[in-house]
Design brief:
Helices cover 50% and strands 1% of the residues. It has 770 residues and is mainly α. It has a three-stranded mixed sheet with strand order 1-2-3, with helices on one face. The termini are far apart.
């Protein structure tokens, strides 16, 4: 029957197009797509109807979940229950993406309609209500569907009482076939899901999975010998197979792993025999795993038989907080071996984020184990699998504040190893195909925050040749690392990068990262900056406006640049330099005429009056003009409120407008409430009602990646709480966590984390009066 036996009761009555952005065509509508999914053949690849369904459910830029999601979950679960329906893996992955996404927010929503529902939470509730149906997928014939289901259940903690027993049972289940014994990805994923949901409560279970012999290496299980990277156990992910949906190749950011980059990533369809075998055919199940004769005939199944499952169990044991006995060293080596092996089932399994493997994701909950495994990987000499080992180190440095001190000595050693390694081998062993591993090693040091200062000589040694000629590949990360340290040795290279329009490697340079730390060398960099910012610019790859924003941190040191900037900018665009003029202050007198001219126009009057105050010291019309700019709409709060904050009590006339937007019950959440709170405190010295909104802005993890030049709401909130002194005493626990916690508060940005950390430490000093 149409729909493969699925009923989909009521699906035609739901107004889907009002709940998600599906096109008007009938064949793009939800009822049609659902029935097409269960009827579609298995060889449609990227043309699977699931992708059409996803379009109206998840906004990939967030990702955010559209209002249709809670209504559609019951039908998705029903579709996965159709026997041998070839797209059930993609459906499970779609539900996982819904479960971990943020709810869609309609900024045009009528306030009279009340608060907008949390569509992601409603969708998760619908999944939890159907947890029993999802659990049945753990018995699916496809290990890849089992792995996808385990990943979904891992993000439904409310269903854990019903799902944990099933996950444990599936993990303990003997392999279905002799081929499956070589690596059951489904069982491994179930172990990881248990570790994700309730590691502490399952320490004994993890230890039982490891068995009594794991205190010492077991050569029979291949722990100490090299693994043949061409031996891919059955049940592994084929990145060309649309069914499992475990890798969305379009989501990979630049420089991160693309599964198709591995020469062994593509598997012959015949390698998936165990998934397609006839369940009534038990010929392959007659193999007795205790039959030593069969092991002698074919040692490959025994060689990798339980390694990945035991590695997952070891990661779970680490996440539980247990361990520390004499067996830890062998377990650490076991996990490190799996992490280094591109042929491991774990390497083919999507979990969460862009981690090296699912084991990394679990270990990121256990600092000691994570660092121990990474230290073991990075300390191994030579170039073998060096790209994977360096990426593992980068993950640890992104996650833990203690990681640079532990790992950078070994990273510097790997730089020395790679310098003596032929370039062809460095590229072959890289994490990304064709990329020189030496670049990754130098970049690792450069991205490690202030700890990289101890290895500045290692970075400087990579700046070889003429900066005006094509650079060695490792020169760019070395230059960036030195610039962020404020090291003068990068000046010729940074100057060349500012003005170059020839070399593609410069297109990703961030002015906010590079310019602020180099304030002490402003005189040396001024000629290069004049060439970029002046009236006859060299069109390099540094964004002009971002450069102006970054120069604000230089203060008066940027004064020599202002006349050239003002000469370049047409009157219409002069306002772009006003924040820089204000930062320079009285030293910006040379551009006072251009600033005064703006007051005769009809736009940017408030910021122009503020900049004039910064030059002359006379507030003049600035408070009134800025208050008028803010009175109409709170959408400019992020731009106007900081200027009022600097005016302080002189801007008392703006307090009603600031309060109006700060307390707005309908639209206040759309405005920059941190900027409004800072301005109110600076003007009135009254902290009433301000501390909690500032604290709320610090709750999100991770905080945005802003670089040293950024001033986001979170950082501004930390600074504001510090200025309030003892009035912000209730913020001490949150600030202490940011200032002294073991985990970074930013994502993939050690430098940004240290910026927040130092700000929190200063704030605590001001609040506690220490």
């Amino acid at each position: 029957m149409p729909g493969g036996g699925a009923v989909f009761d009521g699906v035609d009555e739901i107004p889907w197009r009002r709940l998600g952005p599906w096109p008007e065509r009938r064949q793009d509508g939800v009822p049609y797509l659902l029935r097409a999914i269960v009827d579609a053949p298995s060889d449609v690849g990227d043309r699977s109807p699931v992708w059409g369904l996803r379009y109206g459910l998840v906004d990939g830029s967030g990702p955010e979940v559209y209002p249709a999601a809670p209504h559609l979950v019951p039908y998705l679960v029903e579709a996965t229950g159709v026997a041998r329906q070839p797209h059930r893996g993609l459906l499970v992955e779609l539900m996982t993406d819904i479960a971990v996404a943020r709810p869609y927010r309609n900024f045009a929503r009528d306030p009279a309609a009340g608060p907008e529902p949390d569509y992601a939470a409603l969708a998760r509730t619908a999944m939890v209500e159907r947890a029993d149906a999802l659990v049945r997928l753990l018995d699916d014939v496809s290990p890849r569907v089992v792995a996808a289901t385990a990943r979904l259940l891992a993000v439904l903690p409310d269903a854990a009482p019903r799902t944990l027993p099933a996950l444990r049972t599936r993990a303990e289940k003997p392999p279905r076939t002799r081929a499956g014994a070589r690596g059951d990805a489904g069982a491994v994923a179930c172990v990881l899901a248990v570790a994700w949901l309730a590691a502490t409560e399952h320490a004994t279970w993890f230890a039982d999975l490891l068995g009594p012999n794991d205190a010492r290496p077991d050569p029979l299980n291949g722990e100490d010998g090299p693994r043949d990277p061409t031996d891919h156990p059955d049940g592994l992910h084929d990145p060309t197979d649309h069914e499992d949906g475990l890798h969305n190749l379009t989501d990979q950011p630049d420089g991160l792993r693309n599964v198709t980059d591995h020469p062994d990533a593509h598997h012959d369809a015949a390698d998936h025999e165990s998934e397609r075998h006839d369940p009534t055919d038990h010929e392959n199940e007659r193999h007795d795993p205790t039959d030593r004769r069969s092991e002698r005939r074919d040692p490959a199944p025994r060689e990798g038989r339980h390694r990945e499952l035991r590695a997952a169990a070891a990661a779970g044991l680490g996440a539980s907080g247990h361990g520390g006995g004499p067996g830890d060293e062998s377990l650490i080596r076991l996990v490190a071996d799996v992490q280094a092996d591109p042929g491991s089932p774990l390497d083919r399994m999507r979990w969460f984020g862009y981690d090296l493997s699912p084991v990394s994701a679990v270990l990121m909950r256990a600092e000691r184990w994570h660092l121990a495994v990474t230290r073991e990987l990075l300390s191994r000499p030579g170039a073998r699998k060096i790209g994977r080992r360096l990426f593992a180190a980068r993950e640890a440095i992104w996650r833990w504040r203690s990681a640079p001190a532990e790992l950078l000595p070994s990273a510097a050693g790997r730089v020395r190893d790679l310098l003596s390694t032929p370039p062809a081998e460095r590229r072959r062993e890289g994490f990304v195909r064709g990329k020189d591993s030496l670049v990754d090693a130098v970049d690792l040091i450069a991205e490690s925050g202030q700890a990289s200062a101890a290895y500045a000589d290692v970075l400087a040694a990579r700046l070889t040749g003429d900066p005006g000629e094509p650079w060695p590949e490792a020169a760019e990360p070395a230059m960036v690392g030195l610039a962020r340290l404020g090291d003068h040795r990068c000046i010729p290279w940074l100057s060349a990068a500012f003005g170059s329009d020839e070399y593609l490697q410069f297109r990703y340079l961030d002015a906010g990262d590079l310019i602020p730390p180099m304030a002490a060398h402003a005189d040396a960099l001024t000629p290069a900056l004049l060439a970029v910012l002046g009236p006859a610019p060299v069109h390099g790859h540094i964004d002009y406006i971002e450069c102006l924003k970054a120069l604000v941190s230089w203060g008066a040191a940027a004064a020599p640049l202002l006349p050239a900037i003002a000469e370049r900018l047409a009157p219409t665009y002069t306002a772009f330099m006003l924040p820089l003029v204000g930062a320079v202050g009285p030293a910006a007198a040379a551009v006072e005429p251009q600033v005064r001219a703006l007051l005769d126009g009809d736009r940017d009057l408030g910021p122009a009056a503020w900049a004039l105050w910064r030059i002359t010291g006379e507030p003049g019309r600035a408070p009134a003009l800025l208050a008028a700019d803010l009175a109409g709409s709170g959408h400019r709060a992020g731009e106007i409120a900081p200027l009022l904050e600097q005016l302080g009590p002189a801007a008392a006339s703006a307090v009603p407008a600031l309060r109006k937007h700060f307390d707005n019950p309908h639209y206040g959440h759309r405005y920059n409430r941190v900027a409004l709170a800072r301005a109110l405190w600076a003007i009135t010295s009254d902290s009433t009602g301000l501390v909690q909104p500032l604290l709320k802005s610090l709750a999100a993890r991770p905080m945005p990646d802003l670089g040293l030049g950024g001033h986001g709401s979170e950082l501004a909130a930390i600074e504001a709480l510090g200025t309030m002194g003892r009035a912000a005493a209730e913020a001490v626990p949150a600030l202490t966590a940011i200032a002294y916690g073991p985990e970074r508060v930013t994502e993939r940005d050690a430098w940004g984390d240290e910026h927040h950390q130092r700000a929190a430490q200063r704030a605590l000093t001001l609040i506690e009066g220490v």
